[in-house]
Amino acid sequence: MLRKLHRPGLLCLLSILLALTSLSAVPADGGWEPVAEGVDYRAFKLPGPVRAFVARMARSNPDLILDTAIAHGDLMDGLETVAQMAIRYDGSLSTWENSWGARNEVLVAINGSFHDTETGRPFGGFMQSGWYVRRYDHLGGPSGLTWTRDRELFLGGCLSHPEDDQRLINLTRGTSLRLGGLNRRGGEEVLLLTPHFDPFSPGGSGRTEALIEMTRPAGPQSEEGYALGIVRQVRRGEGGIPIPFDHVVLTGSGEAGQTISRSLAVGDVVGISMSVRSYDEACRHPRPQNWGRAYAALSTGDVILREGKIPHWDDVGATTWHPRSAVCFNDEWVFFVVVDGRDDAYSRGMTLSELATFCKDRLGARWGVNLDGGGSSTLWVNGQVKNQPSDGHARAVANALMMIALQPIERSERFLPGSRVITKQATNVYLGPGTQFAAIASVEEGSPGRIAFHLNRLNGVYAKGSYWWRVDFGGLTGWVSNDALRAAE
Q1: CA-wise closest residue to 370 among 331, 327, 410, 323
Q2: Residue 8 covered by a domain
Q3: Looking at the whole model, is its pTM more than 0.70?
């Protein structure tokens, strides 16, 4: 009936009243549906019409954590749907206890950061499973959402990375070298590459590279400390090095390459320190946020709720109805929220103010951040996309945020380091224990090998539906599924 009225003033008044009352409507199903212990899902059908889809996680449950997902597992391979990312990480190894072993059971996933649609790289910084994956800009404004090993959630301010505190310390020799960049190409600097850079390091003529096996992920530090590792290879002018899931590579050309050559030798014990200092949103005053305990972090859009207060927006993007995604939280719960939009008969969407009001008044949240929205807005719960993305299908995005139930470590004792094995069939050799890692080669049926020593003692670990072994096939070393191996006679 509103479209038949010809009185603009009355139409405007009715629209305002509708927007104000819509957020107090009763949800379609009348209550929360359990997904797992401590995780629930609920669909809201509001006047407007507006449809909102919400999952919540109990912060007090020690078996539930948050983590991020990255499209295709690395920064170089473009975009992927939220569902594809959730499936990729489901059953993979976790590093929640600062070492690998427990498994991730992915229960819920939501789209994450705004991103460059051409390169697929997320805007701003990014952390995953304790790894520092993409460095935040120096004093570049708010750093988004962070989840720590202490089960804390905070909205980060500006960050700086003091140059003298970005270092690799050679504990064997008592020397150190400065790290000039993280997971990027080019420049005559010593660059640190984690497994999220690409399956292979750049390599090439004039470049020196060192492969380092880590005892835990290399993440940011807010206090003195470092992640330990052992140098396994130092190569000059050769092709790219495969980067296993628990290794990093130092790479450099010119003077940076010479620095690596002078500073490192195979067998050296090293520590990697990437100090982070936190400031308020205005980048002026220090803030005591413990980045040394950060586990997962991603850059976000606007803060929509701060200590129960809603900001004011004037720009068209914020004050227009659109599909939206958000993370809201209080001391008890973390909420993943997706609102469908751009369909007047089904769901018109929300403004940022309406989204914040919904988080505050209906969910009881006190804090909240806006994520990438529009056609990117997607909520995946227990194997199913719950909303109807406005593109008509799930859009590929750069990263995601996940609710995860930790499963205890499982092992097989079928083989021991040094055991001789033979492949029962042609099989891939992976960079880590699981099919989510890149396959670096394949070997034929009947190929002989030996179970290789592994620093982090993960031989026989269960992940992605199989037990996994680190196997040396005469110089080609990687991870092979238990199903493809038999003991040599």
Answers
A1: 327
A2: no
A3: yes
